[in-house]
Design goal:
binds flavin mononucleotide, globular, 199 residues, NADH Oxidase, 4 strands, 4-stranded antiparallel β-sheet, 32% helix, alpha+beta
Length: 199
Amino acid sequence: MEFETLVRSRRMRRSFNDVPVDRRVIEQCVDLARLSPSAGKSQGWNLVVLEGSQTEKFWSCTLPVERRSTFAWPGLLRAPVIAIALADPTAYVERYSEADKAHTGLGNGPDAWSVKYWTVDASFAVMTLLYALDDAGLGALFFAIFNGEQQLRESLGIPAHLEIIGAIATGVPDGSDAPGRSAARPSRVVSDFIHWGTW
Ligand SMILES: Cc1cc2nc3c(=O)[nH]c(=O)nc-3n(C[C@H](O)[C@H](O)[C@H](O)COP(=O)(O)O)c2cc1C
């Protein structure tokens, strides 16, 4: 798809059919996401990808069965793929300890970083992934994990030093997507974002 068309048409999708997604499609999309900008080319992000019935491991931790009947997006639970995006601070501390970066002092530990580049990099990569999934004819939602993070870590063996950035649900949209709760908010226009020359 042409880039402008892709950017203008992408919307978060929250209702899927349960048709499986070919693993190769996910791999092709991650192959594009891995080309996202990365501070010091540290590339410290990872995905835990759950497919098919494995997604229940995600939902059982984050949305217990008793809360599902009132869940606003029932079609989200059908998503055939859930990917959990992770950022690794240690990859950045190690990279910035190397000879060409040591002068920054950022190799001293995560607390030395005023901007957490592992969060920035993982976010850039997730954004590329969302566009790649869209371009591949899939729908996707990036969403927060508000509940059960510790339980999810234990269930999936996610090491404590990795930060969970959020989850990406993907699959074939079933066309019954209701607009998200924030969709009616006005969109800011270009002049709202830019402060030419000074604040
Ligand atoms: C950091 C971040 C967190 C988000 N968390 C959620 C979420 O928990 N649940 C949800 O339904 N959408 C979530 N969204 C999606 C936003 O609501 C959505 O991107 C926004 O309303 C604009 O809609 P659009 O992306 O479809 O254009 C999140 C988006 C971002 C960037």
